[in-house]
Each structure stands twice: as C-alpha cells, then as structure tokens.
C-alpha cells in the first residue's frame, strides 16, 4: 500500500505495519488507521495516519530512555486490544530545537498488539509519570525535580 506523508513523501507500507485504533488517538478521534514506520537510525518510529498525510507522531521505545519505566495495563484495556502475550509499548516524543529540551510522554503510552494489529493510547492513572519527561534525565523526571 502506498501512503502519502507530509515529511517523508510517498511511502510503501505493508499490511502488517497498519494498526487499527478503534477510537482513534485522543484529539484525533476520526483517524483510526496508522502505519508504524521504523526509522533507520535509533529507537524511533513514526506513527503515520494512513489517510491524513499531515498527521503523524514520533514514537520511541520508552525503556531506552527510562529502563525502570513500568505500568500495569488494566484488564479492560488488554481485553479491548485482545492482548494475550505479545505487546509493544511506544511513547510519543516532542522534539525541540534544543535537543536537551525534548520530551517523552510517559503518562499516555501507545500500546500495540502486533498480532492483531490493534492499538490504543492509554492514559495511566495513579502514576508518577506525566506528559513531559526529559529524554536525558530519568532520575529527575520521575522524582518530580524537573518541574514539569
């Protein structure tokens, strides 16, 4: 399948790269199909809307930046995504011109079922995480000393 992207032009993606988000992503409820595109350098992916070329999110594996990151996936969310064994967790990055100011959203991870190709952004409750953790400072971001 060929999809149009704003930043990468036309891309060919396979069916096993297309994830269905039954309720969209918060703020983008009408967009339900996204291609997960691995970037060649580093632990980064682009989650690109299949239908809206200007809608994409830069994702990363949160465990690369925060090895101690953990949360319990609520049973109803696991059931909705039909997760039995395999699961991918990615988090949305916000890049800044000053790389040191770039952040990762640990409060609302993107949870993906790579078997059924379903996904959902899960907002965590009762957690020390928030939406703007520094990419460079695990210890200050989680203990609350980063002010964010």
From TrEMBL:
Transmembrane feature ranges: none
The keyword Chaperone belongs to this UniProt entry's keyword annotation: yes
State whether keyword NADP applies.
Answer: no
- Recite the UniProt keywords alphabetically: Bacterial flagellum biogenesis, Cell projection, Chaperone, Cilium, Cytoplasm, Flagellum, Translation regulation
Q: Where in the cell is it found?
A: Cytoplasm
Looking at the Swiss-Prot or TrEMBL record, what is one Pfam family this protein matches? FliW
- Sorted alphabetically, which InterPro entries does this protein's record hold? Flagellar_assembly_factor_FliW, Flagellar_assmbl_FliW_dom_sf
**Of which family is this protein a member?**
Belongs to the FliW family.
Q: How does it assemble?
A: Interacts with translational regulator CsrA and flagellin(s).
- Function, please? Acts as an anti-CsrA protein, binds CsrA and prevents it from repressing translation of its target genes, one of which is flagellin. Binds to flagellin and participates in the assembly of the flagellum.
**Name of protein:** Flagellar assembly factor FliW
Q: Which gene encodes it?
A: fliW
């Amino acid at each position: 399948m060929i999809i149009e992207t704003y930043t990468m032009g036309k891309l060919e993606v396979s069916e096993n790269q297309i994830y269905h988000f039954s309720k969209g992503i918060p703020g983008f409820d009408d967009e339900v199909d996204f291609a997960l595109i691995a970037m060649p350098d580093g632990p980064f992916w682009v989650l690109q809307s299949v239908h809206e070329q200007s809608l994409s999110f830069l994702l990363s594996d949160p465990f690369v930046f925060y090895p101690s990151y953990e949360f319990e996936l609520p049973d109803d969310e696991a059931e909705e995504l039909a997760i039995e064994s395999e699961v991918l967790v990615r988090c949305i990055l916000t890049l800044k011109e000053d790389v040191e100011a770039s952040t990762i959203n640990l409060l609302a991870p993107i949870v993906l079922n790579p078997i059924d190709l379903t996904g959902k952004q899960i907002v965590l409750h009762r957690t020390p995480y928030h939406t703007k953790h520094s990419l460079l400072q695990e210890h200050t971001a989680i203990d609350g000393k980063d002010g964010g």
